[in-house]
Amino acid sequence: MTASRPIPSAPPAVGNLSQHVAAVSSKRLSIVETDPVRSHQHEFNGDTGLIRMFGRAETAQRFPAQFLYLSDDPLDSVTDDGFLTWYDARAAGRARGIPRSEHRLYFNSNSVSRMTKPGDRLFIARMHDQRVIAVVTKEGSTTEAQLVWLFGLDGAGTPRFQTRLEDDLRPTQTTFAVRAILELLGIDTEDDVSEWLGYMVNKFGTEFPTTLVFSDFARSTLATADWRADPDQALLDWMAREEALFRALERHIVNRELEALAEGGTVEADAVIKLVQRALQRRKSRAGLALENHVAHGMTLSGINYSRTQVTEGTLKPDFVFPGIRQYRDPSFPPDVLTMLAVKSTCKDRWRQILNEARRIPSKHLLTLEPGISMNQTGEMWKEGVRLVIPTSLQATFTPSQRPALMSLGNFIERVRECQARIPS
Fold first, then answer.
1. Which of helix, strand or coil describes residue 81?
2. How far apart are CA 395 and CA 407, in angstroms?
3. Tens of pLDDT along 77-107?
4. Who is most buried in 37, 242, 349, 379, counting CB within 10 A?
């Protein structure tokens, strides 16, 4: 039976982190808490912030914990399993009628705790299922800034724990950027697109369509995303919808592949690992291509002329050149009318790859959905002549001192229009 096409729906609804997180607490780590020579106790003082998070310990409470050291370079990130124990060191005295309490949060030694340095920032998230996620980020890193924004914490960080309970966690739309941050923490978020699964399986079968075809399909499932009225929000809506639809189809196809392995006899670890690695690589490559597809479609809607991934020099292929590659290759065409745009769903240090592209255009524009890029990194970008294009709603994740240098997608489109209006007739 052919599945009927569901009615196109609205963009993802605004949700709340409290659906996943019961409480979060954060502090800046001191030398006493990170130096193994000066601290052998493996514990934090239970200040009022932690008491708000865990409550008063009538008896010792032990929580299974996942420890993460998150670096801006994914290759330097580390994860380990362990536990945290919340207890009152003065419990015996209180049992004898002495009212004093002294709460502590003990952690077992692990590969993450051994990596921490003074100034690193600790985030502790208590989940509704009583698991705890303990995350350490390097001081001044993009990852730190992203978690600070996501949880609505103080940007500078303090030596004492700052706590947000579930009622304090602000609503946030499940954008591509938000989902990427939550996935760093191992928190799986999915928009409900179950009504589209049967239709997708009927349309695409058990093979993934090309990214161009799938991006077109994803846009067709949204009723209210309006590029002409608000390109910044439309781009975020398109990306969030494509990601959700892709994950739903991916889950169906990968489950079928796992079932096929099981039907073939004993499932070997190597076969499963290869399947998972292929799926992860497909996710990464498709995210970047999806963003390019949506930008290209939007530029066409805006009446903007462009060339996509055409060779400028050697083997270099910028994502977008405006008004086009023919004008770029014409030495008589005025360079101040040319514009280059690189597109990266996330960038971290990968932004340096664009510096040698389109050499006739000294000022490089970079569109990314990476929220909260660190001051250090944006400073390096601006020094190299890179202008960041950030969708309007994501600009709030940057510091007030960074925001004046950011360009919205709508602003970028107007700039390109102005340039193309100056093209010699």
1. strand
2. 9
3. 899 999 999 998 876 665 555 667 789 999 8
4. 242
